[in-house]
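User:
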Amino acid sequence: MKRVSSILFALSLIGGAAHADTQYSEVTAQLKYDSTMLQTENGAAKVLRDLETQAERACRKVSLVSVGLAVDEVCAQDVLFQAVDKIGNSNLNDQYAASHYYVKTTSERIQLAAR
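Assistant: Predicted structure:
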């Protein structure tokens, strides 16, 4: 089992639908994966599904707008982008390219925070 870490700023919505203040908070995620599974496409697909689940869990926030827990999709995209980039496996990259969380680069949030 290996781990990959991701630190980013997630968007938290605070307030009701009519009055939503946006506020960024730091998200730190340590995602676990089995590197031996990356040797095959099927194994890489399972690793990606596990990484997606872990990213969603890390990016889940209490939302008064949707009344309950909501996944910050941009946060999950950033976490996955960083994880796949750090892992650097071609089978995983191929699976990631077909994922609904696929992005070509990190969000503007990350780019702004890095300045």
